[in-house]
Amino acid sequence: MPRPEYETTMVLITRSDLNLSKGKLAAQCSHATAECILKAKRQSPTILEKYLKSGARKIVCSASNIDVLKRIYGEAKAAGLICYMVMDAGHTEIPAGTTTVVGIGPGMRNSIDKITSSLPLVK
Question: CA-CA distance, 92 to 94, in Å (whole number)?
Answer without folding.
Answer: 6
